[in-house]
Here is the input.
Amino acid sequence: MRRLIALVGAVLLGASSLEAQTQAKMFDLGVQLGQQVFDKGTALENTPFVGLDATYQLPWNPLALAVKGSTFGIGLAVDVSRPVTRGDQFPLVAFDFGDTTFLYAVAQRITLVQAGVQAVAGIPIGSARLFGFVGSGIYSMFLDPRAERHNEKITKPMATFGGGINYALTSTIGIRAQARAITYTQFDRSKLDATVGYIQDRRIRDALPPPDATSKTPTNVQWSLVFHYIPGGK
Amino acid sequence: MRASQLTLAAAVGAAFVLAACQTDPISGPSKIVGEPLLDMVFGPAGNAVFPTVTGARITAAAARDTIEFTVNALPPTGAGNTYQIVLVDTASGATTAATARIIRTVRSRRPVNRDSSVAVTKVDTSNAAQFSIADTATSVAIRIANVAIATRTHVVLRSAGEGSVPASLTTARTGFLSFRFKSGTTYAVQSAMFGSFATTTANRLPFVVSAYVVNANFWGDQVRLNFRNLIRPPAGFRYAAWMLDERTGTATRLGGILSPVPENAPLDDADLGTGKWYNNVGILEAQVRGDMKALNIVPQDYTFITLALEPYGGTAVPARPGTAYVLSASIPNSVASRSATPGKVFGTVTSASGKSLLNTTVYLQGINMTVPGQVGSASATGTWQFRAVPTGAYKVYAIPFGDAVIRDSATVTVGAKKVNNVLTGDSLFVTLRIP
Here is the structure.
């Protein structure tokens, strides 16, 4: 354990000399691992996700005059997750077996792809680098064809912003902890409802509490660790 | 390849391996919610008897001052409530609260032994303009001797829950049982109508069984009944659901009808109310929500469930439902296995004399019940079991094959406990000894 602590300490101390690993005209490629926390009104369970991002550090930096060592870039980010819908947000369905009826909350596992462009700005703070970003893109939900009985994809615009802190582990490898808010637009929760009217239960209409209030513009939050690589980093 | 590139590739690979490990059962992520429902066939009650008037007559003498009739099958009144006897003139709306000689006769049958019983008749007489009913099997002979008969056209029975007798009636509905005895200048008793009376014929609403039962279910500890287009009850009456045991006469009131989920508001004013759930003749949608846990009852102790008419008013709901059953259903035998916390009572019978134990009958009877709820037979080795026993106190007793008397009994109490966070009934072992 002491060796591990010493190793981590050495790495973090070493980062102070590597703060300048990201420089203009360089690419920064990252692999994201994290969790997406959905707004309750989306009827989606929180889910782990994986993602990729790529940022090109522009030679023109509007922050350069104000903050020494700052960076400014534009990039792409895409992530994929497989959240499950919350069956308790939709009507129950009833399955009759003789004199017995079972009530089911119908959920489905969808595939969620979120992709967009973003502008990223960073400033060095001691041995770390704080960064923030803002961007926009699209989110696509691929519904489960087993539940829906057909292939259906929902693609709508989204906006995003966030930030985090970056540590350089070597001249080319670093790790980031970041948080991101993603606001969906034109969101329609009812599209995630896999039930069909003729089997919806009308017997125990209060078997579940009322569904959470929904919105056309829910905001979700992503927490992630990003392992990033800078080809040609110095 | 440089170590950094390998690290990046490994991170990407690990991420996608983790993602690929996310699997669901073949049925998908859907889940069962709550207890399974046990369906009942809820329909018009075959054993219903609604209030009737028999033997109605008016004196033929020139005075025309006496009306006699007998009312049968009146539902019991709650404490403090009474039935009012009113003479009404439909032309003017004028009313008279008619003091009458009232003879209440209660006929009941008292068991003497297992095979025979004796009929008991109890009669009491009073002079009043109203009367109460305590027992279902009551017939009421009413003799009205009043000079107002000459100026009135109808006899109307009202529930005091409607309020005191007004001096005159408007065209609004009132009363639940009525008959005409005078048309113009002709005195002739006509058939009685059970249903809301009004001075204008068009406003009257005879009661007929009319409803669409959406569904009727036991759901865990609850009874849920859903209806549409129930006809309005007669004025002064309301609907209430009861569970009854025809073997013992036990009756438990589940509650009145409510507006649909999520409002769940009482519809006790369905007879004359003007709420959004009513039209002129019917109740658009209603439900009954019976909580057996709160009532401390188990469905196995009852044989049928009914939606009945009862008079409202007074200080308490009626103690018994009467026989004005509008809808009913037999309680399914399988309801025992749907108890929220079924336990198990099992054991063995032993014989001191080495007598055969095969087919020794073992009975399980609720402590407060007069007949056994479950009956089983012992095997050749004396083992027996009752697999689905709701929580509660029971007497277990054994009668050997060919015998007629209880040879041994034991009292057991089936409780409930949590096993793996699931509420489960106790499993109890009992030994019964026969000679």
